[in-house]
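Hi there, hope your week has been kind to you so far. Thanks so much in advance, here it is.
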Amino acid sequence: MSLMHPISCIAALTLAAAVVVTAQRAAAGSQYVVLSTEPVVNELPPGKIFAPSDVINVPAGTVVTLLGEDGSVNPISGPAAFVVTEDALTSNNPQRASDGQAGPSNLALIASLLTNERQRNESIGSARTTADQSKPSGLDDPWAISIEESAPGCIRNGEVVLARRGIGESAVFSVRFGGGLSLTGLVWSAGKPTYSLPDRVPAQVKSLIVETNKTSALIEIKVFPENAVLENPLNVLGWMVSSGCKRQALAFVHHLATKQQ
């Protein structure tokens, strides 16, 4: 089953690209959101959704990464042109969420996040693609929680990974859990962008406070649901966005885009 049907008038290179994309997909979806475009192309901004019958034109020298509502990640290199087809999503697809509406709703959440982030960057004069973001620290790890702001933190399997921006010097810090348990005198070694807590967080813990001599952050713990599909990027991203883990969701988008390059 094909992802998209190439427009026949495009050169042979386009057809080859279509074959590559098809080979990478086990099933086809009918809507796609742009995760990243490298280099920037005004017609293919992150967050744009393509629906059936829409034409996707990818200029020469450009790579666009699309996320389908079936959870597939599809990199397309230009020059290429495709028309999105109306392909049915089957319930026995292992990458699909159990809720038939989860795909489209998650796609819309992701599109809104990327559109808002792009507009925010443009308003401060730093417009760039998600894939072009610099990686100064462990904050590029989608499963690492920043200790520099109070915000929801998304974790999996009870594992808490903390991240910081400045890694030039060591830091002594403490972690206080909502249930009263505390870890004190923890040492974050210089040069280490992330720190993994030694034990898994109990299910009853809903928040924690991380304190250093410079910062204090209240983290609301969000645990990836046991019945969700961790291997499905659409599930993970949609859950991160709906849980309020905006920075982690953007880091995950960056991870998906660079993984395809």
User: Anything to note?
Assistant: The chain is about 25% helix and 30% strand. Residues 4-123 form one domain.
